[in-house]
Design a protein that fits this description.
Layout (H helix, E strand, L loop, with lengths): L1 H9 L34 E4 L4 E4 L11 H16 L3 E6 L9 H7 L1 H4 L2 H17 L29 H14 L16 E5 L2 H10 L6 E5 L20 E5 L14 H9 L2 E4 L9 H8 L2 H4 L4 E6 L8 H14 L4 E9 L4 E7 L6 E5 L6 E9 L4 E8 L11 E5 L8 E8 L5 E8 L1
Parallel strand pairs: 3-8, 6-7, 6-8
Antiparallel strand pairs: 1-2, 4-5, 9-16, 10-15, 11-14, 11-16, 12-13, 12-15
Length: 436
Amino acid sequence: MKNLLKSAALIAGLTLPVVASAAPYCAALANLDDLPTKYQKRGPFYSDADAGWIVSADQLKAAFNVSQEAVLLWQMIAAEFEKRGTTLVVLAAPPRPLFVPEETSDSLDLKRAFDRSGMARDFSAYIAALNAAGILAPDLSVLTGGEAAGDYYFKRDTHWTPVGAALSAAHLRQTIDGTLVGHTLQVVPFSESYQEKGSLSHVAEQACGTRPAPETVAAPVFAKAGSADSLLSDPVTAPRIALVGTSFSNRYQRDAYQVADALAHALDAEVENHAITGGGLVGSMSGFIQSNALETEQYEMVVWETPYTAPLTQVDGLRQILGELHAQSATDVDPLQTGQVSDDWLSIRHGFSPADHTGLQIIVPGQSTGTLIVELIDEDGEKTRIKLTKSDRADPALRTDNWDLAFGGLAPKRIERIKLRLLGEAAKDAQVRLFN
């Protein structure tokens, strides 16, 4: 790891300098009323044209508080993977603001905008909770103190760089040392370059009228499996790993930052990339489960890459993923009602105990994307609201019109009524049923 850090630091000089200009890029970036409407909920934007950095306000809002419900759902999800002979690990991208250099943070006035040490502490506590729950996850925020920290994230894009991806994979290797044999960490040559136009540069162009220059950063050259200098002495018997993630691993509909290659190099494994762009917390994992690959492909490990903007603290998404895993192996179905679900609430009166069933499934023929709100109302009138989401970014072949949620971790009170609302949609026939 030390050698890899040195290698990354040495290639930092390959980054092209940003043309100096007055900071910020323009006053409109820092003024919500002057921003284009579609960017206002992400703003204001803190920028320094001299340093080249742009940071959006939504990146300064940490959501890493871990509930007991989330921990229980983590454990149940991990157990479902174990039942299928697969180990689930999490590769959680750390908050981007932590990697802004101190001097740049001062010029951006970030110290007044957010609690840097508090965010670092909360993220580390979140990662520690994942590990305590039995899901291995490296704390990538420790890389903020490394020699290549300045190369981990793009200055004008929200994603990690190829260097950041390589460092993350190497740190994952360190964290799971001994679970896979035959590994020798070698220095990766960063002899190629990668040019990123930058999503935050696009925001600046829309707000200021001029687009900042693209960033050119170093990119690694990984040995190909089976080549003479490959780490894989026998690719036929190499461990098989599935990468499930977001645009961090599937930028521009491809693995632009070479995350799968970095994992293959670090873990001496064959890595198959199932990531999708724009799917949020649920999208790619749901598609992966629906592909049936978890049941048929005999992966030794699934690496769940999650961004700092969608941590695994979101209980609704966890409950949906667990529900889909349970539904895959359900053996008993108890139909409740067939009715029309729409943007108006559908109310179903049916008494049952969540302890007697694994989950709830709503089948809406032809409706494989969107948002379905479920309310469970117990005997005391207390409501549990769960938001199920299905991304239109997923491969149509991997979409399903089954909407599943798991009951695991719910209070044992008897449920007396179920309410359903399909946001923004006209009335559609639906089948509602319990499953075990």
